[in-house]
């Protein structure tokens, strides 16, 4: 045990203030001692051989400590981030209530000030969803479907918040187009996520989404009188034409890649 202690002390920095270093040294010494006892119980009696064998199993002790330090430091950051979000959320909600009551009592416009409270909660919910999306996206690809669902929910939460503001404060007669725009951007966001994360069926998603996006864009621009209904309908066949172009491009690209593979095999 003394030789293991000397090996650890000579291999790692000597610092009495580093709590991580102290815990790592202690756990490493316990692990090496337990390994030595295990080998002794199996019949290995030569102390020099035993020492060399255990040391050889822990020859990367410096790299092990660096990895240990990174993991512990990351865990500490995650705990601190979680605490900041919890207390930050409590403070945010408290301030939201104060602002809502303050503006409501001072203006007496209770018919509109409710939007402050509702939209404030929706903005907080959007932030929480963004945190969950970021966390889920770091996991294996099997969890990416959950990240995409959360992304869709986040886009719709933002759309509903904007819709409530438009109808509750601005009293815009065409506020309903915000919901359609939200659904449209939900498709766009999901298609971008699928492409960036290199999902296998990303192109299929776009082929399904583009006609839907074209149709909703047609409704939005015509409802807001940017173009007439008799002209705006052209967005639908244009979206279908874009689908055809994407399919043709993908087929040509796949054929070229297949031809390159065949030529490479023939050359070899």
Can you characterise this structure?
- The chain is mainly alpha-helical.
- It has helices at 2-11, 19-41, 47-57, 61-107, 110-137, 144-170, 177-196, 202-223, 229-232, 235-267.
- Helix 2 packs across helix 3, helix 6 runs antiparallel to helix 7 (177-196) and helix 7 packs antiparallel against helix 8.
- The protein starts with a helix and ends with a helix.
- The mean pLDDT is 86.
Short description, anyone?
The protein is mainly α and 268 residues long. Helices cover 84% and strands 0% of the residues.
List keywords for this structure.
268 residues, mainly alpha, single chain, 10 helices, 0% strand
Give the overall shape: flat
State the low-pLDDT regions, or none.
none
Helix run count? 10
- How helix-rich are the residues, as a percent range? over 70%
Let me know the average pLDDT.
86
Beta content = under 5%
For the secondary structure, the number of strands is 0
